[in-house]
Write a structure and sequence with these properties.
This protein is mostly helical. The protein has one domain. About 70% of the residues lie in helices and about 0% in strands. The protein contains two helices and no strands. It has helices spanning about 1-10, 20-35. It is flat and about 30 Å long. The chain starts with a helix and ends with a helix.
């Protein structure tokens, strides 16, 4: 899922900085809580 989200944004894992990765993980954690 994370890889799909990054690809949709036109990025690869190696191109994402730590701050952005942290924000993405927080968003994913928030989404999984809703499920």
């Amino acid at each position: 899922r994370l890889e799909d989200e990054l690809q949709r944004q036109g990025k690869r894992l190696g191109d994402v900085d730590l701050v952005e990765m942290d924000e993405i993980w927080n968003a994913i954690k928030g989404m999984t809580k809703l499920e």
